[in-house]
Amino acid sequence: MEISLLTDVGQKRTNNQDYVNHYVNRAGRTMIILADGMGGHRAGNIASEMAVTDLGIAWVDTQIDTVNEVREWFAHYLEIENQKIHQLGQDDAYKGMGTTLEAVAVIDDQVLFAHVGDSRIGLVRNGEYHQLTSDHSLVNALLKAGQITEEEAAHHPQRNIITQSIGQKDELQPDFGMVTVEAGDFIVINSDGLTNMISGDEIRDIVVSDLSVEEKAKTLVRFANNAGGLDNITVVLIRFAEEDMA
User: Fold this and answer.
1) How do residues 30-80 score in pLDDT, each as one tens digit?
2) Angle, CA 164 vertex, CA 64 and CA 58 arms, to 5°
3) Rounded to an integer, what distance in angstroms lies between the CA atom of residue 45 and that of residue 35?
4) What is the chain's Cα-based Rg?
5) What's the pTM value of the predicted model, to 2 decimals?
6) Is the dihedral of CA 71, 74, 80, 83 positive or negative?
7) Closest Cα partner for 21 from 57, 47, 45?
8) CA distance readout (Å), 50 to 34, 57, 166, 169, 199
9) How far is CA 203 from CA 7, 190, 213, 217, 231, in A?
10) Alpha helix locations (H) across 89-137?
11) CB atoms within 10 A of CB 95
12) How far are the Cα atoms of 9, 36, 177 from residue 105, in angstroms, in the given order?
């Protein structure tokens, strides 16, 4: 398994509110966590770094080695973190703080994920890009309800309004998912700074190219910046080889 993580401030922002890291627990199991913070200049940075780091520290201390244990861990710790960030957000200095979150755990050939917000997880297999998550956003809700078209969604003035985030008052309702990976598959995890700038087809073309995993990640970020780089851009690429299969 090869992993490349890359984050970039983009072309228009002065600070980076995205945060990403990867962690290995005592059973040798990997978790990658990506967050895109929201709130004032300072609050967004703190929310994303806090969510990733708190969950990462909690993961490292476990000996979780099965799919069922991962699911239970996600459900328990995401809500703890939600409440913690919500409480801090009551302070004037951190008003409105919150963050999206993508957490991905790898147990042999099983990839489990938890999803909150509008960052994304995708799978590239046999030359096709499949989005595995569904955005928790106002625009996606309107799209699902048939009230707007894909074209209208892409340019909607309220497309940055998300309907769920870590740090909200109400109990979280994350989406959980699992995919069985095959040799040659790539998992792509990204903040919306990538997918608002380039298409799934462009992501696929870069991921299936002959570049190294690290160069593919750099190329994805470069394409998003060349398209305008309106937001922070964070990308994680995980490549699965034959020896990773259970």
Assistant:
1) 999 999 999 866 799 999 999 999 999 999 999 999 999 999 999 999 999
2) 25
3) 10
4) 17
5) 0.96
6) negative
7) 57
8) 11, 10, 11, 17, 30
9) 16, 11, 13, 10, 17
10) none
11) 11
12) 26, 18, 11
Angle ∠(109,30,175) on CA atoms, nearest 5: 75
Q: How many helices (DSSP H) and strands (DSSP E) are in the chain? A: 7, 11
CA distance 34 to 56: 11
The span from the CA of 2 to the CA of 57, in Å, is: 22
User: Two tokens at 36?
Assistant: 């895109």
**How many beta carbons lie within 10 A of that of residue 115, not counting itself?**
25
Helices marked H in 89-149:
138-144
Residues 123 and 141: their CA atoms lie apart, in Å, by 23
Assess contact for 104 and 92: CB atoms under 8 A: no
- The stretches of the chain forming alpha helices (DSSP H) are 43-60, 67-88, 138-144, 150-154, 192-195, 200-207, 213-226
In DSSP terms, which residues pair with 4 in a beta bridge? 237
Q: pLDDT tens digits, residue range 45-57?
A: 999 999 999 999 9
Give the C-alpha separation, 13 to 44, whole Å. Answer: 13
Which is nearest to 100 in space by CA: 40, 62, 51, 146? 51
Asked if 47 and 37 count as a contact pair (C-beta separation under 8 A), the reply is yes
